[in-house]
User: Fold this.
Amino acid sequence: ELLRRPAAVVKAPEPLADHPTRLARKVGTAPPDLAAAETPLFGRQAELGRLRQVLDEAIQGHGHVATVVGEAGIGKTRLVSTLAADALSQGCRVLIGRCHESDSILPFGPWVDACRSGQVSTDEEILGAIHPNRRAELARLLPESSTAGLPPAGEGALLLFESVAELIEQ
Assistant:
């Protein structure tokens, strides 16, 4: 039945221009590298509803982490793509980071991918709010975030971890 009916074109909701907690800075509107919605989302209304609730809470300043797990081919990417499209339509910045089992030697790989996909690694407003020592650490992972006058980066993993955590917080 799903294959016989045509895909419905769903118009994204209009951005909330006067939302009271909306950040003043302009966020890139380029869509992330996600699968296009070629068919209707089927059988994931409850999951999408919960994720949309988490998104609404994040927009109001109450951040969360949601993990979407499951076997290959059950629609995880499609579910996240739909949520990302909703977030973009509301003026949110969307960061997408991927990891694969073969990437185990790159523990910060998904974060680097996410910061680059969401243009965080070149956003001076965000980077400028980070302490220079932490920004020097970030330059180890994101060379494009470096700027003149930073102190030398350390070699420890803890300071690097803390620097990534501060970047995510910003």
